[in-house]
Specification:
The complex is a heterodimer. Chain A is mainly α. Helix content of chain A is 66%, strand content 4%. In chain A, the strands form three sheets. Chain A has a two-stranded antiparallel ribbon with strand order 1-2. In chain A, strands 3-4 form a two-stranded antiparallel ribbon. Chain B has one domain: ABC transporter involved in vitamin B12 uptake, BtuC (Orthogonal Bundle), CATH 1.10.3470. In chain B, helix 1 packs across helix 9. Classes of the chains: A mainly alpha, B mainly alpha.
């Protein structure tokens, strides 16, 4: 409620203003929550809906909102104003980036490579499972997806709300071909990528003429169409029940992770059986795949096609008048982005061992797009940080068992996961509308490469 | 023939509900150029508010006339969703006005996730069924028309008439149309742009609340996740009709309603949404700015 009070009289102290605004916020939140928190619809024994009254909870929530608003207006905002005023007085100093900031990406990659080793040392093989799988692999899948979508949205400026469709194509390509034909992951990985890229082109063709929000809705519709076909084409996809028993990935056929195989890793290396080896192997695999995405993105940006994408994002008409073929430029962007989505999808299918249309709902597309925008479009480091914070943050909520001791036994933190996720999206966007990394490395430059504020780069209307 | 007319009736009912939601999308888009993704969840909130009012009424009185109950449900739902949309606009969208285009879209998606999960947390994840409110069915030449459908169509027509009057004949509507054309110029001419935008959000929310109430009355059940699918379809309808155009939104809504009921009647009910989305894609290939939308002028 940032702008509610327009009357900013000089003579009122922050405390007075705080009280006034807190009362106002209290009235509003009472109105908002009166029906939804004060009353709860519940089923009684004969399955009829009845209302349960919860006025105490309503009072607590309203009081919390008022207290929050009061601290915000009376203490936090004057403090920020004061700090800004002090900053404005000082002469601007060119900030010298420290060693850590300068080498952030190198340090981050190093940390990512030693992360599973650290976890194994700290928690043992069995204890590390959770940390490597739920946090490491989960976050890295989203990092890879977001980096793939970044090619379409961040570089080419084409707003795609149905990216999860390509993820689904990759996952189903692997799931179907591996279960029916028994092909190995290493053959199917490129196959899944090519198929996803092919679908990217199929989506790309009809939307070539569309711009902005029309493009957004058609991509959204495309994502939904793919999901609905997956649900309803039962003969092939097994419908909503999904495909299970998808084979595991082997280490290039040399070492297998199936306990029954003769070349099972524990037998080959002569160590104790554990599920953790497979997870650690998967971790390194997705890390390498994600780094491949980043590497390709960085290299493509320096190639004519990458520069054409960025030119397209900045100004389509100028692009066309300079002789760039916008058709192929858009199609390559869709195809390349989709290909990485397909890679991630086939990895996802192999990791889960099970795919169903449930995993490819619009919410996933929205989360991936949110990560790209929250990270700062076009900035690979920012996107990775955003993925780690948003996905890791919601995963951590699952671990908060101690909250049960505070709020009682029937308190389930998971329930609040998506609520907090949605609110975090709003708050981060309000706090940093340009994303975590608000500056860009220009692709083309005169004499010296200098980061520019992302306010100067366009988001594209293609 | 009878079967066909029957499907027309069903399509008209469905289309009216989509149209009412679509107007909210298209108005907000017209005035600030933003896809209000949370609008579908505003619709769901409206349905829930109506449900709670219905439960309060049945708990307090033994019998309430249906007209009174429906009116009360609608009015309370409209007030609730208006308050929600007004607050959301102030908190989440206004600070980002003038920021780059994707920022408000992301906050809107975040709001949509937050709202539906807020209802899940506070009201529980189950479906909420209510006993049928209106069950009269008329039979005209072998075509069955239920009173529910008649109510839906009449309420929609009345609201559209009121709405048309507001937008075309009052100073408020003039201010809205002025803001739509050129916000800066409108501000220079003394229009309170912020207030106009707030009122636009309130109007959109009120129409969505009516749609929510009608939805609850028609299907007799609502769940926290019910905002997404009608929301996406209404948005599809708005784009199909040409986003920013009010008659277009209603036309698009009716078209989506007809496509859905015809497809499920003659082809397969499983693929009705696929049909609706495919037709959207096909229409947009040939008419890139929708049926009644103004073609975008490319400025160099």
């Amino acid at each position: 409620m940032a702008n509610i009070a327009k009357i900013d009289r000089e003579d009122t102290s922050p405390i007075q203003r705080g009280i006034r605004e807190a009362l106002f916020a209290g009235v509003i939140s009472f109105g908002l929550f009166f029906l939804f928190i004060g009353l709860k619809t519940d089923q009684n024994i004969s399955n009829e809906l009845i209302l349960v009254q919860r006025w105490g909870l309503l009072a607590i929530v309203v009081a919390l909102v008022m207290a929050g608003r009061f601290t915000m207006v009376a203490f936090v905002r004057p403090m920020i104003d004061r700090r800004n005023a002090e900053k404005a007085k000082l002469p601007p100093v060119a900030e010298e980036a420290g060693f850590f900031r300068k080498n952030f990406s190198k340090i981050a990659i190093l940390v990512l490579f030693i992360y599973p080793v650290l976890m194994v040392l700290l928690f043992g093989f069995q204890g590390s499972l959770k940390w490597v799988d739920n946090f490491g692999i989960q976050i890295l899948i989203y990092v890879m997806l977001a980096w793939g979508l970044n090619i379409v949205v961040g570089l080419a400026g084409l707003l795609d709300l149905g990216y999860v469709a390509f993820y689904a194509v990759g996952a189903y390509a692997y799931a179907l071909l591996a279960t029916h034909l028994g092909w190995s992951f290493w053959i199917l990985l490129p196959v899944a990528g090519i198929m996803a890229a092919f679908w990217g082109v199929i989506l790309g063709f009809p939307v070539l003429r569309l711009r902005g929000d029309y493009l957004a809705i058609v991509t959204l519709a495309f994502g939904e169409i793919i999901r609905l076909v997956l649900i309803n084409w039962r003969e092939v996809t097994n419908g909503a029940a999904g495909i299970s028993g998808i084979p595991k990935i082997s280490f290039f056929g040399l070492v297998s992770f199936n306990v029954s195989d003769p070349n099972y890793i524990a037998k080959v290396l002569g160590i104790a059986q554990s599920g953790a080896y497979y997870k650690i192997f998967l971790y390194y695999l997705i890390l390498l795949l994600a780094l491949l995405t980043a590497f390709v993105t960085i290299r493509l940006r320096r190639m004519p096609v990458g520069r054409a994408w960025e030119a397209l994002r900045e100004d389509e008409i100028a692009c066309r008048s300079l002789g760039i073929n916008t058709t192929t430029t858009k199609l390559t962007a869709f195809a390349t982005g989709a290909m990485f989505g397909g890679f991630a999808g086939s990895f996802f299918a192999a990791r889960q061992g099970f795919v169903s249309p449930e995993s490819f709902v619009f919410l996933e597309s929205a989360i991936i797009l949110a990560i790209v925008v929250l990270g700062g479009m076009g900035s690979l480091v920012g996107i990775a940080v955003a993925a780690a914070l948003m996905i890791g943050g919601t995963e951590i909520l699952r671990e908060m068992e101690f909250l049960k001791h505070v709020f009682g036994q029937d308190f389930t933190p998971e329930l609040y996961r998506m609520l907090l996720f949605g609110m975090a999206m709003v708050i981060v966007m309000l706090w940093k509308p340009r994303g975590f990394v608000g500056s860009r490395e220009p692709t083309a430059f005169l004499h010296k490469r200098k980061a520019v504020s992302s306010a100067f780069t366009k988001e594209g209307h293609g | 023939m009878q079967y066909f007319v029957q499907q027309m009736v069903n399509g008209l009912t469905l289309g009216s509900i989509y149209g009412l939601i679509a107007i909210g999308y298209t108005m907000v888009y017209g005035i600030i150029g933003m896809i209000n993704f949370a609008h579908g969840d505003i619709f769901m909130l409206g349905a829930f508010a109506a449900l709670i009012v219905f439960l309060i009424l049945t708990a307090m009185f033994t019998s309430v006339p249906v007209v009174v109950a429906l009116l009360l449900m609608m009015v309370v739902a409209m007030a609730m969703t208006s308050l929600y949309n007004w607050t959301i606009e102030k908190v989440a969208y206004r600070p980002l006005r003038g920021s780059f285009r994707l920022a408000p879209l992301i906050t809107a998606i975040g709001m949509s996730i937050a709202l539906s999960n807020f209802v899940q947390v506070t009201q529980g994840p189950r479906n909420k069924p209510i006993p049928p409110m209106v069950s009269t069915v008329y039979n005209v030449n072998g075509i069955s028309v239920s009173l529910k459908q008649i109510i839906i169509v009449i309420v929609t027509v009345l609201l559209l008439a009121l709405f048309w009057y507001l937008v075309n004949k009052t100073s408020l509507g003039r201010a809205q149309r002025a803001c739509e054309q050129d916000r800066k110029m409108a501000a220079l001419l003394g229009i309170d742009v912020d207030r106009t935008i707030s009122i636009t959000f309130i109007m959109g929310a009120a129409l969505a609340a009516v749609a929510g109430t009608l939805f609850l009355m028609y299907y007799g059940v609502v769940a926290f996740s019910d905002g997404f699918v009608p929301g996406v379809k209404a948005f599809t309808a708005a784009v199909l009709g040409g986003i920013g155009s009010l008659p277009g939104a209603m036309l698009g809504g009716l078209m989506i309603g007809f496509i859905e009921s015809m497809w499920s009647a003659y082809f397969s009910i499983d693929y009705k949404d696929v049909a609706a989305f495919s037709i959207l894609a096909i229409v947009l290939i040939f008419l890139p700015s929708g049926i009644l939308g103004r073609p975008e002028v490319e400025k160099v």
